[in-house]
Amino acid sequence: MPPRAALSRHLVGAASALLLAIPSLTASADEPVFGWIEMATVEPWGTTVKAKLDSGALTSSLDARDIERFEKDGEEWVRFRLELEDERSDAVLTEELEKPIYRSIKVRGAGGSARRAVVLMEFCIGDRRYEEQVGLRDRSEMFYPLLLGRRTIEHLGLLDVRETFINGANCDDDAELVANDPDAD
């Protein structure tokens, strides 16, 4: 094949691929876009924390201390303490909670594997409130007390890994609540 014909064929192929991609870009233009770090509030306290949106993690994770499993009315529950510094006021929220365990997950990492309790928690990011599954873990040595994994990101919208702080946490009393979908597990 002459070089000119090969170049022409290559350009036609590239243009076709680009045209095929355009409808998917315009179809998603209505979805909100979030940066890889955003401000979120942990509800119902309204404590503002930095949240890392991590497409490499499936399940979200929240900084929790003194995590203790126990049985209540024949079901598995977990008792834990939140100790979150508010990014806006520097006040520290210290709250002891007891919640039913939604499910347990096994996580593997460089240090081995561990089982973690997952509970439902509510938080605000952008202008909506979300009820999401979060694994409980001591994240005190981490930069971000809240990590949002793919299960949560899929409810938010699009993730732009080049940007940070595109949206604030702007929920009022009338903010839409996106409830956890148990069928999505």
From TrEMBL:
GO MF annotations in UniProt: peptidase activity
SUPFAM superfamilies hit by this protein: Acid proteases
Domain of life the protein comes from: Bacteria
Keyword Signal applies: yes
InterPro entries noted in UniProt: Asp_endopeptidase, Peptidase_aspartic_dom_sf
Keyword set includes DNA damage: no
Keywords: Hydrolase, Protease, Signal
Signal peptide positions (record): 1-29
A Pfam short name: Zn_protease
Domain Retropepsin-like aspartic endopeptidase: 33-167
Protein name: ATP-dependent zinc protease
